[in-house]
Amino acid sequence: MALFAFAGASLPALREAGLLEFVTPAYAKMRRDKLTIEPAAGGQGHAFDIEVASSEQEKRLGLMYRTSIGESEGMLFPYGVEREISMWMHNTYISLDMVFIRANGTIARIEERAEPLSDRVISSRVAVAAVLELQAGTAARLGIKAGDKVIYPLFKGAKR
pLDDT tens digit string along 64-120? Predict the structure, then answer.
């Protein structure tokens, strides 16, 4: 018992020294919210329940180690200032569509069906402010494409 007490007491010191980093378990949920994607040509929008990866630790973890994601679920990675963003599928067991979004909410590009467990770098290719990850095939199934608008408070100029 004394060994466990000592080990537990030394964890904060190891963490402060940068020798130990705790990663949130894959099943732990990040902040939840909702967003909508509206077709540029008009018509019915598509609502999604999302998790928001706000902190750097949450962004590093993303959807790693998850074994499923629902048809109307996603994860939003907000970066604030527009820049070219690169993603990968390291330790991600499910195939995803990656939706790269400009600061005004316009979808710049979509990487469809990213390969699970791949270390291939997937680039936005243009400056964007966020990435939305959805279940693979969602973009094709719902007809989501570049030019459509993501309605969420993060995006300036996106109309409700």
Answer: 999 999 999 999 999 989 999 999 999 999 999 999 999 999 999 999 999 999 999
Spatial distance between the Cα atoms of 21 and 118, rounded to a whole number of angstroms: 24
CA-based nearest residue to 78, from 142, 153, 137, 25 = 153
Structure tokens that stand for 100 in this block: 């790269």
Look at residues 120, 156, 148, 160 and name the one whose alpha carbon lies nearest to residue 41: 148
Count CA atoms closer than 13 A to 64's CA, side-chain side.
17
Those residues with Cβ within 8 angstroms of residue 53's Cβ, 6 or more apart along the chain or in another chain = 30, 59, 61, 62, 75, 76, 77, 78
Output DSSP code: residue 25: -
What global pTM score does this model have? 0.81
